[in-house]
Amino acid sequence: MTTFKVPVREEVSAASQQSFDTLKKVLGMVPNLYATMAYSDNALSKFLTFQNAPTSLSNKEKEAVNLIVSQINGCKYCLSAHTMLGKMNGFTDEEIILIRKGGSSIPKINALVQMAKDVTENKGHVTPEKLDAFFEAGYTKGNLVDLILLVGDKTIMNYLHNLTDIAIDFPLAPELN
């Protein structure tokens, strides 16, 4: 089977080198999964533009979606990264586990997680009950579009890691019981 190593700055395109420099400045590092995108001359810069675009969802809501989508897609890398980011955005360890199991003790976040779970598992074919619960929780049609974009964003990264299996450079997320 083909193996993938994490490319370093000197091995990537000029556009990707600029993205590496920006990531290093902002995050203090270039996460391995972002670096792996640089196998393509333009993917990293295009993806970062997409990922960093304005959204109607809060950072905490985005992390809840990232966690449930990564759990469903079986991506250990993204689960590890977003467990850390979820904590940075105010989730407890217990709440992160609840989200990964498909729910939340926070009613509005619960509706969001349930919707993201249904969207991911059923490839956009959601139950009317989940859609109604999403809107009843106070979300809008604009939030729904932003949710779909976020599911797409996370699915891209989940699939990239699941295919390449590059090293995880974050503290490992615990396994679910």
Would you write up a description of this structure?
The chain has 177 residues and is mainly alpha-helical. The protein has 2 domains: 9-51, no CATH class; 59-164, AhpD-like. Helices cover 63% and strands 0% of the residues. It contains 9 helices and no strands. The protein has helices spanning 14-27, 32-37, 43-51, 59-72, 76-88, 93-100, 107-121, 128-136, 141-164. Helix 4 (59-72) packs parallel to helix 7.
Name the quaternary structure.
single chain
Count of discrete domains = 2
CATH 4th-level superfamily of the largest domain: AhpD-like
The helicity comes to 55-70%
Give the low-pLDDT segments.
Answer: none
Count the DSSP helices.
9
Written as H for each helix and E for each strand, in order along the chain, the element string is HHHHHHHHH
Rg:
16 Å
**Number of DSSP E strands:** 0
Q: In brief, what are we looking at here?
A:
The protein is mostly helical and 177 residues long. It folds into 2 domains: 9-51, no CATH class; 59-164, Up-down Bundle (AhpD-like). It has helices spanning 14-27, 32-37, 43-51, 59-72, 76-88, 93-100, 107-121, 128-136, 141-164.
